[in-house]
Design a protein that fits this description.
Elements lengths: L2 H23 L1 H10 L2 E4 L5 E5 L4 E11 L11 H21 L5 H19 L4 H11 L11 H9 L6 E12 L4 E4 L4 E3 L9 H11 L4 E8 L7 E6 L5 H6 L8 E2 L16 E5 L4 E5 L8 H20 L4 E4 H14 L8 H10 L2 H17 L3
Helix pairs in contact: 1-2, 3-4, 5-7, 9-10, 9-11, 10-11
Length: 377
């Protein structure tokens, strides 16, 4: 099968998976799946064509991918897509030897290199890179984004049936890994799962801006590596419906609190060296950590200010995502400050910690560690 056919098959699969996941969620998502349903097939400019109501309505959807791990060049290329391709090539190269239990040292060394590379790419990414990738896909530089090609897509679709009701939209395939972040939604807190992306303020604003030009936005949320859709939303955009339709499916603006939001935290300037040892039934790898030294004062100050902001958001019933240090500080101080009048300031967090009985503070931190870092791994 040609590269183009493989790409078309993959794009259609993402769309179909998104519909299946959204349908299972019920409510607005299920209703919008029904509104969007029809005979879907691969097309060219836009990528997917849906014919409905006997051809009286035609929907054209342009697909593109958004990544958490991106290059820093002008093209904002996907590092995770390239990594997945290289890893698949490596698997095919060594799968016969693996089945026979006859892997050579070269294979073990190559696997170690992939592990080290994945660690470096994760260390060099930040949450805002997801928005950068989306911006490049939607708008890009010098009008190169898909939003500026909608007129051409509309003309192309209209050629099929000039009297049909032509609708346009995007299928946006997100690939993220936000493990290490916590999601708080006003009712409970939990770790963010691989492939899950509580939509950041910046990404939400970009989607809202794009919604003014299309009828549909299909969001497909996937893990960093792999093409399984873990969550999806089918957002109706016509007649200013974006915010309402998105909110009904849990797509709301989520502030991110902590280091690693705007810039990478623990950035690696070079890939770590790898050592490995092959046992009878296992392989042990030791990967060098080349991350920049942590500034404890920066981490402490960020945890204090982030916890204050988290408390203010929680009081308003608004969601937020937090790093481990911010989440810990928030959790051990929120009971002490729940009755405070007015906004919580960083000095209030510091005072609450200072006035806490040392044994109580130690117990709270230990319980938190056991719950989140041991029992809930």
């Amino acid at each position: 099968m040609s590269h183009k056919k493989n790409q078309e098959k993959a794009e259609l699969s993402i769309y179909q998976q998104a519909l299946k996941v959204a349908r299972a969620k019920g409510g607005e998502a299920r209703r919008n799946v029904a509104r969007l349903s029809g005979d879907a097939r691969s097309f060219d400019r836009p990528d997917i064509l849906i014919t409905a109501e006997g051809g009286r309505r035609i929907v054209g959807l342009e697909h593109f991918r958004v990544d958490h791990h991106i290059g820093r060049g002008k093209k904002v290329e996907s590092k995770s897509a390239r990594f997945s391709s290289d890893a698949e090539r490596f698997r095919k190269q060594h799968e016969d030897a693996a089945r026979k239990g006859a892997l050579a040292e070269e294979a073990y060394r190559g696997l170690g290199d992939l592990i080290s590379r994945a660690m470096r790419e994760h260390s060099n990414a930040c949450v805002d890179d997801i928005g950068t990738s989306l911006d490049a896909g939607l708008f890009g530089k010098n009008g190169r984004g898909h939003a500026f090609k909608l007129d051409a897509y509309r003309d192309r679709v209209a050629e099929i049936n000039s009297s049909a009701d032509v609708q346009l939209g995007f299928v946006i395939e997100f690939h993220t890994d936000l493990r290490g972040w916590f999601l708080n939604n006003g009712f409970h807190e939990r770790k963010i799962a691989p492939g899950e992306f509580p939509v950041s303020l910046e990404v939400y604003d970009l989607l809202k801006r794009a919604s003014a030009h299309v009828d549909w936005i299909v969001l497909a949320f996937c893990p960093l590596y792999g093409d399984e859709v873990r969550d999806a939303a089918i957002i109706r955009c016509c007649n200013g419906m974006f915010e309402t339709s998105a909110a009904r499916q849990g797509i709301i603006q989520t502030p991110y609190l902590g280091l690693g939001k705007e810039t990478p935290f623990g950035k690696q300037n070079r890939q770590g060296e790898v050592e490995f040892g092959v046992g009878n039934d296992s392989v042990d790898y030791l990967v060098e950590n080349t991350s920049e030294p942590m500034d404890p004062f920066e981490l402490f100050n960020n945890a204090i200010s982030g916890a204050a902001e988290a408390l203010n958001l929680a009081r308003k019933g608004k969601p937020f995502a937090a790093t481990t240090s911010v989440q810990l500080t928030y959790d051990i101080t929120k009971d002490s400050l729940k009755h405070k009048n007015g906004n919580v300031e960083p000095q209030d967090i510091l005072k609450a910690i200072a006035e806490m009985n040392p044994s109580e503070k130690s117990a709270r931190m230990e319980n938190w560690r056991k719950h989140w870092l041991i029992d809930n791994v």
